[in-house]
Amino acid sequence: MERSVYRLICAISSLCIVFSLSYYFSYIKAWEHYEKSQMERETKEQVFPAGNQEEAIVKPGATCIYQIYNTETGTMTEEEGYVTSEMVALKRADILLYLEDYMEHLPKEEEEKGLESYTLTYFSTDKIIFEKSYNPNKASYMYYIVVENNIVVVYYTDWKTVFEYTGIDARRLSMEEQKKLSNGIKVKDNAELYSILEDYSS
After folding, report:
1. Are 201 and 152 in contact (CB under 8 A)?
2. DSSP for 26-66?
3. Contact, 26 vs 40, CB < 8 A?
4. Would the pTM of this model clear 0.85, i.e. be above it?
5. Going by CATH, does the domain composed of 49-138 fall within 3.40.50.410?
6. How far, in Å, CA of 67 to CA of 129, rounded?
7. Domain boundaries, the chain
8. What are phi and psi of 21, to 5 degrees?
9. Cα(197)–Cα(193) distance, integer angstroms
10. How confident is the model at residue 150 (pLDDT cuts 50, 70, 90)?
């Protein structure tokens, strides 16, 4: 009787040990498989977050997403397409230089829409994501009138590109107008601009 009980206990213990070992090795194997698949997926995608310094280039046909943020309303919209030909084969560092140059030589239409920032938020060989922030209030004027060497000069809103050298001598204007011009005058449209210049010329 005692031997039967002993054998039963040994059999149950053996089964428990075998079951535990099987479970343990199955778990280890499953975990190794998971880690391997993760590494293979990451290697295949070659994903590089915007802050990563790893080297990779943009592939032809890569997805390009623009997240458009309106700072006035706090809303964001998303536009999805494909990278332009000028972005193909660029590295992350090249994209950053492209964005820097874009902001330094802002297209007129972007100025008028009030573009404030243009940043890279995600980078991989197959997908890049940009965020563009617009402030419509910033784009509430088209021109900027200043005085240079006593002559009234009209600039676009980037304050760099000259719209017109008027030839008007600022010293002929009232002290009040000269003071305004010393600070710069923002002009919302062509009608307002030509009205001001007509007053200065009369």
Report:
1. no
2. HHHHHHHHHHHHHHHHHHHHTEEETT------PPTT-EEEE
3. no
4. no
5. no
6. 7
7. 2-44, 49-138, 141-201
8. -65, -40
9. 6
10. very high
Structure-token pair, residue 179:
């003071």
d(CA 79, CA 42): 26
Picking from 28-37, 59-68, 70-79, 188-197, which range would have the lowest pLDDT averaged per residue? 28-37
Residue 144 in tokens: 């900027």
pLDDT digits (tens, 9 = 90+) for 40-54: 554 444 455 554 445
- The order of strands in the sheet holding 151-156 is 162-169, 151-156, 143-148, 185-187
Look at the block and give the residue holding tokens 């494909």. Answer: 82
Mean pLDDT of all residues in the chain? 81
* φ and ψ at residue 165, rounded to 5 degrees: -90, 110
